[in-house]
Amino acid sequence: MKRERKLDKMVITSEAQYKEAYKKSVEDPQAFWAGIAENFQWHKKWDRVLSYDWSVPETKWFEGGKLNITENCLDRHLKERGQQTAIIWEPNDPGDDVRKITYAELHEYVCRFANVLKDNGIGKGDRVCIYMPMLIELTVAVLACARVGAIHSVVFAGFSARSLATRINDSQCKMLITADGGFRGTKNIPLKEIADEALDHCPSVENVIIYKNTGQSIEWVSERDHWWHLETRNASPEFTAEVMDAEDPLFILYTSGSTGNPKGMVHSCAGYMVYTTYTFKNVFQYKDGDIYWCTADIGWITGHSYIIYGPLAAGATTLMFEGIPSYPDNGRFWEVCAKHKVTHFYTAPTAIRALEKHPVSLVEKHDLSGLKVLGSVGEPINREAWMWYSKHIGKDKCPVVDTWWQTETGGILISSLAGVTRQKATFATLPMPGIQAILLDNEGKELKSDTAEGTLAIKYPWPSIARTIYGDHDRYKKVYFSAFKDHYFPGDGALKDEEGNYRITGRVDDVVIVSGHNLGTAPIENAINEHEMVVESAVVGYPHPIKGNALYAYVITYSNTEEANQKLEDEIKGLVARTIGAIAKPEEIQFVPGLPKTRSGKIMRRILRKVASGECENLGDTSTLLNPDIVNEIISGKVNTN
Ligand code: ATP
Ligand code: MG
């Protein structure tokens, strides 16, 4: 049991321990992180824990260290937990067979596929694009890349051919791994067909490996295309992991693109491993025998860090779900929780808000008594969604961890530790050990008072910070290190209460200046969402001849009659005036059937801004939207602002 105890050593189990760990992490960060890194399997220990210069900017952790992350996620567990389930796979269709794979089987599968990669000319440093549905094979492909030292770039399997091609070309991928098709609810997405279309514009791709999933017919390009099952059939189940330098890149992942063009964030091997494992164990307080389910797609950072790497390095049982929350009905999440006796459930506010609209009987008919911890990630969680989640899903007994972080940060930066540190509804609460978060005013001066509201910044490196934007270090510097000297700038605003708890208020560029007052749109949305008839809302600014800018609110309600909406309009304005002030009252309110969202469920505000400003002809790229049709519906119901 030696190794397991090793990992458990890093777990914080009381508030006092948290304080102690935090203090040590600030007073002597290098000793602190060296102590955590000791718990992993290295070929060679590091020479230097940290060196950095954020004027370059450059950050290096565990330099001189040698390792392979897959040995930490797989080989290390074989002796003690080889027969333990590593991944539970729940199919799109609840009638289909569940798959379970043990650590020993996963190890063997990854080794086989690593041999396939090698036989197809993939080695250390090559970029491999993975465009696959949520199947165990997606995890296998990711880990096999890491095992041979190739850099994976996972592209969410809901993206269009154009989005896929842009991402493949940006990082010049040599190989694409995909499937014939993918099931999502009632849909069957023709992945190979989309990939073929993309590859017409991607000369760097030499080979394509296709996993047979749906069995639908596909076009075949001989020489280039290879079946997964034929390639793996005779591959050896052994593969000696490539020994990587601590700072070698592990993967590239594109941000969700809600504010601009997606950025190919580059994460490196050692720091990422150490930080995701540390935060997984501490935030979720996962114990042996627990069943952990994160509903994110592996196409996003949450899936990378908290479905694959963090949980597997910690020796957890992690659940992967192929489908969507509304299929076959809106109780699917709860059905899956009951079916697999899920103990840890981690999802996004957008999903909670969508599900809370439906009768609670859809929740109540499932046995959720196994749940111990609930998590939220992706956007600020409004009070109503928090309360509903805590009451109906957590039965008021499960701690809710609101985890604030980004693709760029690799792991969770601010969150409570489930059941260990205090929670406060709508607050992400305290920074993780090692995270020196501060609030700055508009001039970049630190706000030192006990309670404050400003722009969030981090003043010291943590191990899993992205090292660059692939092929564009200048942009990396400009976006993250130029706003405030020697600070990492995440682009989010926050406020702090007297106990040091942080509440993320939204993106700082979501600020509208109305009659000379800076108004964040997130708190206004929160106020609107408090109304019991409101499902969700989005507030943006548009040019106004007198006020400079005025506020335009898009609101989804439970009612559909014009009469009811008329009444609601006044009530919403009154509610905002009471909660924030008359200045924040929306000038216009449009009731809409839905909001344009990115594939990760975030509202695409740049489109709403354009519509509110009357620039409906020039909306930019809408192909990455989850629901492109909604845009026309919104335009046709637009309130005249000109
Ligand atoms: P892009 O950077 O391309 O615009 P994105 O920021 O949506 O895309 P992600 O890295 O997936 O891409 O999302 C990170 C952002 O999500 C954070 O900067 C923050 O605005 C928001 N966020 C994530 N978790 C939370 C949370 N718990 N509370 C509040 N906001 C959150
Ligand atoms: Mg971002």
Automatic annotation (TrEMBL):
- Read off the Pfam families from this record: ACAS_N, AMP-binding, AMP-binding_C
Instruction: Please state every residue range assigned to the domain named Acetyl-coenzyme A synthetase N-terminal.
Output: 18-73
Q: Which GO biological process entries does UniProt record here? A: acetyl-CoA biosynthetic process from acetate
PROSITE patterns linked to this entry: AMP_BINDING
Ranges for domain AMP-binding enzyme C-terminal come to 524-602
Transmembrane ranges, per UniProt, are none
UniProt keywords (A-Z) are:
Acetylation, ATP-binding, Ligase, Nucleotide-binding
Q: Which InterPro entries match?
A: Ac_CoA_lig (IPR011904), ACAS_N (IPR032387), AMP-bd_C (IPR025110), AMP-bd_C_sf (IPR045851), AMP-binding_CS (IPR020845), AMP-dep_synth/lig_dom (IPR000873), ANL_N_sf (IPR042099)
E.C. no: 6.2.1.1
What molecular functions are annotated in GO for this chain?
A: acetate-CoA ligase activity; AMP binding; ATP binding
Q: Where is the AMP-dependent synthetase/ligase domain?
A: 75-461
UniProt lists the family membership as follows: Belongs to the ATP-dependent AMP-binding enzyme family.
NCBIfam families named in the record: Ac_CoA_lig_AcsA (TIGR02188), PRK00174.1 (NF001208)
Under what name is this protein listed?
Acetate--CoA ligase
